Amino acid sequence: MSLVIHKYGGTSVANAERVKTVAKKLVDLKLKGDDVVVVVSAPAGMTDELINRAKAISKNPSKREMDVLLTTGEQISIALLAMAIHELGHDAVSYTASQVGIRTTSQHSSAKITSIDTCKIKEKLAEKHIVIVAGFQGVTANNDFTTLGRGGSDTTGVALGVALGAKCVEIYTDVDGVYTADPRMVPNAKKIHEISYEEMLELAATGAKVLHSRSVELAYKNNIEVHLRSSFVDSLGTLVKGKVDKMEEAIIRGISHSEHEARISILGVPDEPGIAARIFNHIAKHNINIDIIVQGGGIGDHNDVTYILKEDLYEEALKISEEIAKEIGAKGVEGTKDVAMVSLVGVGIKSNSGIAAKIFDAFGKENINIDIISSSEIKVSCVIPQKDLKKAITALHERFIEGKN
Amino acid sequence: MSLVIHKYGGTSVANAERVKTVAKKLVDLKLKGDDVVVVVSAPAGMTDELINRAKAISKNPSKREMDVLLTTGEQISIALLAMAIHELGHDAVSYTASQVGIRTTSQHSSAKITSIDTCKIKEKLAEKHIVIVAGFQGVTANNDFTTLGRGGSDTTGVALGVALGAKCVEIYTDVDGVYTADPRMVPNAKKIHEISYEEMLELAATGAKVLHSRSVELAYKNNIEVHLRSSFVDSLGTLVKGKVDKMEEAIIRGISHSEHEARISILGVPDEPGIAARIFNHIAKHNINIDIIVQGGGIGDHNDVTYILKEDLYEEALKISEEIAKEIGAKGVEGTKDVAMVSLVGVGIKSNSGIAAKIFDAFGKENINIDIISSSEIKVSCVIPQKDLKKAITALHERFIEGKN
Description:
The structure is a homodimer of 405-residue chains. Chain A is α/β, with parallel strands linked by helices and 405 residues long. Chain A is 36% helix and 27% strand. Chain A has two domains: 3-249, Carbamate kinase (3-Layer(aba) Sandwich), CATH 3.40.1160; 255-401, 2-Layer Sandwich (VC0802-like), CATH 3.30.2130. In chain A, 51% of the residues are buried.
């Protein structure tokens, strides 16, 4: 007998048939003698529907009230899943985050879990109930409802795993694992069977949408394995863990990408201490999220500071950058939309020099111009024209994953 | 400055435009300097939609989980209404029953409010917020979600009025008051400006659906006035209160009716003490609600016991009655569907003899056969064939309200 924690995303509970399928799977586990805790998201489409209701009333609704509104989605899922399990003749009980004491910070729409009171869950597990918990949501010390932001249900799943002392959390979704590249872009992409936390974090941070960074961070910090797998196909997925088996070792684990990015350069920034901090503090104050920063390329005692961000924030960021450029005495600002970012991720990068040279070679053969290149210990990201994205991913996949030349 | 409590039903918050209209009304009150507390129901149609989702999974869903599911409806309304008030530049904060401590008994789907913790509401009123509370729902001592049953939001409104020491609770709905009869049946029906608690209770109990009995009982017990009025038309509605002004005095206050009833008679019941109790305990055990009981009409030491109930419970009730008839040695059971009930209600009935005679006279002229007649201090109910209902209401309205002959 062991403790099993499953998390099901919105597509897995989108309608009555799918809810019943999930219920069946949970009951089978229960019959094997496991203690079962399950986290569910809102039914697919419901969150958008609720957002539309809000938008019909206010262009900029209060974040507190948005959280009151959106937390209804998972509440619907947990009740329906409990009913489906009852229908199969087994005990199940549903809890919202407030009922089960998932305490968070008070930043509405992006709260962080601070603690989980597991008393009630343990009590119900001991009574042989399947315990169903609403994902994505939390409650502040003041009993206000919060949400955890994009991918929040994954984080709920892992946090429950930590609180209950589970070894592994299984995250069921509409894909059957993490791939070496987006299979829609690269038909040859292969499923990754095992991946380290660090690699998964870099993939997620650079565009792989399949698992949210925060849940991986939490798993990393607490050394819980995350098994990402399909709720529709019964196969092993991708295991995210601390050390990857030797068999699975590779220089490059996978290739992620991010479309519809924009680049903004502040030109001729005076080379003074603290000036980059001033620029990015100013931008952060406007809640603009930045994907990459590159500094350098200026002349003499002036630098160019370049950053990459989502295209839809471009106009606002350009205006803000012009303000700050004036304030700090920079020469000017220029930017462009229609860029994309492609990243190579793998722990092997640490010990392999010459990766950048190989990238330049691969892109050169395909006539792809690299706008910016930025690297960390286990990641190399290239900013390229949006139109060349597919070509670029394919070239990198052939060179680094398939081993072609 | 005074405390104002409004309650809005589902049709009043059915869509964004209506939510905005309610918000405007509340802000106007606030600008007059009042403290404003508002209770809202789920948007019209949403509860049915949620029930359909449950029915697609289970024919007989757990009541606990139904309450988890259904309480999302009001939670959506409170968030949207708060946003609409913010949009008008005013402070508002929304609370579910669990957040504001509306404690109830643990009978899921028909819980009773046991206490309300008003701390948070008072604190927010002091900070000049409009306080929005989800109607229809509560939470048990064990933090399980409950619902209060049909008309539960009215009860939430009145209970908040009691807890906060309000003099009056205004209940906004899609009709503009209580009428002397259903205006769809009797075009001459007039709005009742004032009505006593007892009369309102009898009207509600005998079929007037406009205000739920439990909210009136609660108002009665605590002597809070209930003002029932339209959210669409700006006019005075019906004031439910302790003593009705002399000006408003009438023998008959109004006529209620109830369609699609059925009659079941247990014939030849032995005339022994406690036998009626045995019959109706047995029926109550099957959760069958009875509208009227009449005993009498038998011969010698045998009685006939007749009761009226909703038509959709007829088959089940007939079976149960046959069981109990056998058990107690009654002669048999007979029954009929397609009956209706029409009731005259008014405190004047107490002191007026001859009301029954006038009813027989009025019905006689219209050739309407009275199957059963049952009266209390302030009410006379007649069971008649369903097909004669409209004719019967019209005849009684002309005779007792319009004063025609």
